[in-house]
């Protein structure tokens, strides 16, 4: 980039930040910058990275009992139940979980539905699986009030896992979960439709809004702070329905039309929902349950997926993703075990049902290659990410 172009970009960037501070929309300001310079901001880091997202960690009582059994009298061990995910999750450059339920103190008592209080050992398993960050905004986020939020975020911090969607203070709520992924800054945001009618003690406790203006303002703030990619986790939709609602599709279209949102990862409905593309960018409406009670509800609630996106730059230097997915199945056993499924899996019925739903809006999203799902040896977790705290303008 020539010196005159760098100067023009700098002037326009200052103008964009000024517009944001004065209350004007940063989306329009950045659009002017992009049109004038002819490409996005300066390229940093790698030209390719992978992101995986997964469904709800929804710890019903039967799963807690299984973890106690697997621990053989030494607390709770969720790894035997989840171990088959490890190669797939740790092999991604950025892995995003959805921790739907709050965690309790080490001594419990622990509870499942309807007001969850999960063993904190689940966080240790999330770390061992290779997750880098988790969305925590959900309809169960404040089942145990502010103390539950605090315990959950403390546990994630101790394990070195990022988080977005809930907060322990007004100041923390202003921070953005910013990850360094092979030299590329990726921001992660998280929101929920509500909290099952449980009132919040403070407005900052959980992001319980799906208003596009709020989400886009936060995404614009992340881009202004240097994020090249913004991924948004949304706890939304109608439970047990494979088809996304009209409201889901409207919101996805509105967000992905913005230059400030690059990917949407959906959770909450407990069954798989389809993928869709708007403006060259992807939404996975619902990834099903990562793990939940395998003997309750319909068969579809035992099936989920790992959404996988390979990001690369297009001809104009913008980040664009190629999607794929891995079907999953929670087997009731005993013992209860989560299984990742390949295209030629013996559980062909589950694979075909998941394929049919994922592609139901007309997008031929492939199942990830077998080498990704079951590599000969599990790859290392890779370079550690970092979280950069940001202040709300």
Mean pLDDT value? 87
Biggest sheet descriptor: 8 strands, mixed
CATH-level-2 architecture of the largest domain: 4-Layer Sandwich
The count of β-strands is 14
Low-confidence stretches: 1-42, 378-393
Output the structural class: alpha/beta
Specify the helix fraction band. 25-40%
Task: Determine the oligomeric state from the structure.
Answer: single chain
Q: Give the ordered list of helices and strands.
A: HHEHHHEHEHEHEEHEHEEEEEEEHH
**Tally of individual helices:** 12
Instruction: Identify the overall geometry.
Output: globular
CATH superfamily of the largest domain: Metallo-dependent phosphatases
Task: Indicate how many domains the architecture comprises.
Answer: 2
CATH class designation of the largest domain: Alpha Beta
Determine the N-to-C terminus distance. 29 Å
Global Rg: 20 Å
* CATH topology-level name of the largest domain: Purple Acid Phosphatase, chain A, domain 2
Strand content: 15-25%
Can you describe this structure?
The chain folds into 2 domains: 3-37; 48-373, 4-Layer Sandwich (Purple Acid Phosphatase, chain A, domain 2), CATH 3.60.21.10. The strands form 2 sheets. Strands 1, 2, 3, 4, 11, 12, 13 and 14 form an 8-stranded mixed beta sheet that branches. Strands 5-6-7-8-10-9 form a 6-stranded mixed beta sheet, covered by helices on one side. The protein has 12 helices and 14 strands. The longest helix has 19 residues, at 3-21. The protein has helices at residues 3-21, 26-37, 61-71, 79-82, 86-90, 121-129, 145-158, 170-173, 212-224, 246-256, 348-358, 370-373; strands spanning 48-57, 94-99, 133-135, 162-164, 177-181, 184-192, 229-235, 263-267, 275-278, 281-284, 289-291, 303-313, 319-331, 337-340. The protein has 393 residues and is α/β, with parallel strands linked by helices.
